[in-house]
Design brief:
This protein has about 325 residues and is mostly helical. It is about 55% helix and about 5% strand. Strands 3-2-1-4-5 form a 5-stranded parallel beta sheet, sandwiched between helices. Helix 1 crosses helix 11 and helix 11 crosses helix 12. The longest helix has 28 residues. The protein is elongated and about 70 Å long.
């Protein structure tokens, strides 16, 4: 099997959510936004609303997609050089999903053996195969996602390898998983809400309460140094390394969160840093057509990319190119 040359292409994104936490933004989204500038014209941001259906609450998906789209745009997704799109706006995805599923052995077609809790529905069980269709359809070479755990993306890469082996040719690139994600210290199950933090477009008062809660968490669970390391990394992304060092020098404290006055100042700096994005978000939410126009333009680009991928795979499988509709 001779390796093909696939141009660099980034894919990242998130399931739609009501609110993006400031900790989640600093940990994951800021990294996605940084990476987009390395792949101008080939950075794709996915709003994975089909994936979100595996968790229920379909009645709120349209609203959550609009919220998340506005959030990404306000925080810095540049649609002049990047592509923002909604998964459900790309119908070609499901033909590719079926072609991929029919090429997989049963142990790779589902994820039941790779998760601690059994899926609640068939969609959740087939989640990795749909994720593989997302990645392979765009022929992504670089991938990241909005979670500190890469198991499902790893699984999608295994699927790409299996298909290439099955067909005896290098049809798809094997995405490289990238991302510098500070891992929060976890002392007990499900502390994720704490580390996700309040709404990224919240105010200094909300950030102050969050920083105090992080301080108490470290003290209570004997994780002071671990929380300090995580907070330093997050704060550096939120206010910049230089301002963070100035703050640490001025307070004379080894632990950034130990003094309430320092927590107050850090909260103010975070709010100040995010103020332009907060104002942009409010404008986009008041003018909903801005988000829809960006998503529509993104969907057109992705449909074109997937059409090319599907037609290529159809030919390899002997199905031929898509015929004209019967009349």
């Amino acid at each position: 099997m001779h390796p093909s040359i696939h141009p660099p292409r980034l894919m990242c994104g998130s399931e739609p959510r009501e609110q993006l936490g400031v900790g989640t933004y600093a940990t994951f989204v800021s990294e996605q936004l940084r990476l987009q500038h390395q792949y101008p014209g080939d950075a794709f941001f996915l709003l994975a609303d089909y994936h979100a259906l595996t968790h229920g609450q379909p009645e709120s998906l349209m609203r959550r997609s609009a919220v998340m789209g506005a959030t990404y745009l306000a925080l810095g997704v540049d649609v002049r050089t990047s592509v923002l799109y909604r998964q459900s706006d790309v119908p070609q995805l499901f033909e590719l999903f079926w072609l991929i599923a029919c090429l997989l052995p049963p142990q790779l077609a589902d994820s039941a053996a790779n998760v601690e809790v059994l899926p609640r529905n068939l969609g959740a069980e087939l989640y990795p195969a749909l994720m593989a269709a997302d990645l392979l359809g765009l022929r992504a070479t670089i991938a990241t996602q909005l979670t500190p755990r890469f198991e499902r993306l790893d699984y999608a890469c295994q699927i790409a390898e299996q298909i290439n082996d099955r067909l005896g040719r290098d049809c798809f690139p094997i995405p490289k998983l990238v991302g510098d994600f500070p891992r929060p210290p976890v002392a007990h199950p499900n502390p994720q809400d704490l580390f996700a933090g309040p709404w990224v477009f919240g105010d200094a008062g909300e950030f102050r309460v969050w920083l105090s809660a992080l301080y108490r968490y470290g003290e209570t669970n004997n994780l002071v140094s671990e929380v300090a390391i995580w907070c330093d990394s997050i704060a550096s992304r939120l206010i910049g390394a230089e301002r963070l060092q100035q703050l640490k020098d001025s307070c004379g404290e080894a632990y950034l969160l130990s003094a309430s006055s320092v927590r107050d100042r850090l909260a103010e700096l975070i709010a100040e840093h995010l103020r332009p994005s907060r104002e942009a978000y409010r404008q986009m939410r008041s003018e909903g057509n801005m988000v829809e126009e960006a998503l529509r333009a993104g969907a057109l680009r992705v449909r074109s990319e997937l059409k090319e991928t599907v037609e290529s795979l159809r030919e390899i499988l002997g199905l031929g190119r898509v015929r004209r509709p019967l009349t």
